[in-house]
Specification:
Layout: H1 4-14, H2 22-28, E1 33-37, E2 40-43, E3 48-51, H3 54-57, H4 66-78, H5 91-103, E4 110-114, H6 117-134, E5 142-146, H7 155-160, H8 164-167, E6 177-180, H9 185-188, H10 194-212, E7 217-222, H11 238-248, E8 252-256, H12 270-273, E9 280-283, E10 295-299, H13 301-307, H14 322-337, H15 340-358, E11 365-371, E12 374-379, H16 395-406, E13 409-410, E14 412-414, E15 417-420, H17 428-451
Parallel strand pairs: 3-13, 5-6, 5-7, 7-8, 8-9
Antiparallel strand pairs: 1-2, 2-3, 4-10, 9-10, 11-12, 12-15, 14-15
Helix pairs in contact: 4-14, 5-14, 10-11, 15-17, 16-17
Bound molecules: 4'-deoxy-4'-aminopyridoxal-5'-phosphate.
Residues 56, 116-118, 121, 150-152, 223, 227-228, 256, 258-259, 284, 295 line the site of 4'-deoxy-4'-aminopyridoxal-5'-phosphate.
Keywords: Aminotransferase, Pyridoxal phosphate, Transferase
InterPro entries: Aminotrans_3, Aminotrans_3_PPA_site, PyrdxlP-dep_Trfase, PyrdxlP-dep_Trfase_major, PyrdxlP-dep_Trfase_small
Family: Belongs to the class-III pyridoxal-phosphate-dependent aminotransferase family.
Length: 459
């Protein structure tokens, strides 16, 4: 391929990157990734980089699995495309629907396919409103979500999300979507214990339902663990209380498992980790381990029976795309046959947790949290208080992420939290490498931040 600088110049000139400003691209040039195998990326300079984010939390089985490439090639030759509109179907969509019904908890026995998480959550907005229409309760339209949630990037799914920065760019949220607080104890819990705070945040759901009137509320949507919001792991009291409220109130519960699905928490689904019984579950990412774009809404017997009464005027050209479905099926076969979820639960996650919690002793680290193979830590200027930095949120996180990149470790930052969500197939020795590079990066970033005069807590 062309020299890196040339590739970067063309990239900056013609390629509009998500979530990236032009001047940043022009100044630094994006890292050009050329190959990947297992848990390691190779860039255009030949550097070997440990991918502790599994791409964007999706490459659960790791890179370079030839089986998926072979299945894709075979399917492309046999039937590269057909749709599932107007009374047609095909074998890969049928087989994947059956497999998902088998794997999913409870009676989530039906799937409406999409090409990713945003599309699936757009589907969910329509599904829940349509459900209540057909139930003779057309006033039940409001969907309650949470601040700092991430449910996608389309107008509908970004409206479900609670990212104010996104809402400000394009007139979101759309009507009838409201947001309650997130269970983020570290920065928002004040003097409460985590358990008190978790209960308080859960009860905001009940208060919001009462405020709006139950007759207006269609659904509550939440990620079992907020991912893009910073891997916010709720206090233990949170989910049991939300479960109680959802059981007592006549609303649907949508679990967005785009990140937490397919083994990430050490269970097949985060809903099993927290004993949730969603009426609808959003899946994407780990469904195909990112090898093909596919997502879907898994739907309970109860909801499917109502929706299916009449034509649901909704569908994407690529709903259940045969190549993507075949790839997803092969990915699920590998997850099952290689017992990767057991590997997470019994080996990788406990070892990662042991290492991750050691980082809590670092002067730069305020807290460490982890469930399964998703972990985060709070950077801090002062371990004795749970407070943000004086510098604007993300300044210190960005500096730390740069040090990680420099040490060939992909870690992400959300404001001033550092995140990892590695491929589930990581071995103990991969985790040792992750840990060594993380410590080195934290040491270096701590020094940078100190020297820049930014090691200061907000008032
Ligand atoms: N929901 C969650 C919880 C996500 O993390 C994401 C993607 N990060 C989405 C939905 C959107 O999925 P996609 O990017 O495939 O549209």
């Amino acid at each position: 391929h062309m020299p890196t600088a040339e590739l970067q110049a063309i990239d900056a000139a013609h390629h509009m990157h998500p979530f990236t400003a032009n001047d940043e691209l022009a100044k630094h040039g994006a890292r050009v990734i050329t190959r990947a195998d297992g848990v390691t990326l190779t860039d255009s300079e030949g550097e070997q980089i440990l991918d502790a984010m599994a791409g964007l939390w999706c490459v659960n089985i790791g890179y370079g699995r030839d089986e998926l490439a072979e299945v894709a090639a075979r399917q492309m030759k046999e039937l590269p495309y057909y749709n599932t509109f107007f009374m047609s179907t095909h074998v890969p969509a049928i087989a994947l629907a059956q497999k998902l019904a088998e794997l999913a908890p409870g009676d989530l026995n039906h799937v409406f396919f999409a090409s990713g998480g945003s599309e699936a959550n757009d589907t969910n907005i329509r599904l829940v409103r349509r459900y209540w229409d057909l139930m003779g309760k057309p006033d039940k339209k409001v969907i309650i979500s949470r601040k700092n949630a991430y449910h996608g990037t389309s107008m509908g799914s970004a409206s479900l999300g609670g990212m104010q920065g996104m809402h400000a760019q394009g007139g979101m949220p759309i009507p009838d979507i409201v947001h309650i607080g997130q269970p983020y104890w570290y920065l928002e819990g004040g003097d409460m214990s985590p358990e008190e705070f978790g209960l308080m945040r859960a009860r905001e759901l009940e208060q919001k339902i009462d405020e709006l009137g139950e007759g207006r509320v269609a659904a509550f949507i939440a990620e079992p663990i907020q991912g893009a919001g910073g891997v916010i792991i709720p206090p233990d009291s949170y989910w049991p209380e939300v479960r109680r409220i959802c059981a007592e109130r006549d609303i649907l519960f949508i679990a967005d498992e785009v990140i937490t699905g397919f083994g990430r928490t050490g269970e097949w689904f985060g809903s099993q980790h927290y004993d949730l019984s969603p009426d609808i579950m959003t899946v994407a990412k780990g469904l195909s381990s990112g090898y093909a774009p596919i997502g879907g809404s898994l739907v309970s017997d109860k909801v499917a029976a109502v929706i299916g009464r009449e034509e649901f005027t909704h569908g994407y050209t690529y709903s259940g795309h045969p190549v993507a479905a075949a790839v997803a099926l092969e990915n699920l076969r590998i997850l099952e046959e290689e017992r990767i979820v057991d590997h997470v639960r019994d080996e990788a996650a406990p070892y990662l947790a042991e290492k991750w919690h050691q980082l809590a002793d670092h002067p730069f680290v305020g807290e460490t949290t982890i469930v399964g193979m998703m972990a985060s830590l709070a950077l801090t200027a002062d371990k004795s208080v749970r407070k943000p930095f004086k510098a604007s949120p993300g300044t210190v996180g960005y500096m730390t992420r740069e040090r990680c990149f420099g040490n060939n470790l992909i870690m992400r930052h959300v404001a001033d939290r550092m995140i990892v969500a590695p491929p589930l197939v990581m071995t103990k020795s991969d985790i040792d490498t992750l840990f060594e590079r993380a410590v080195k990066s934290l040491d270096e970033a701590y020094k940078d931040v100190k020297e820049a005069g930014l090691l200061e807590t907000a008032d």
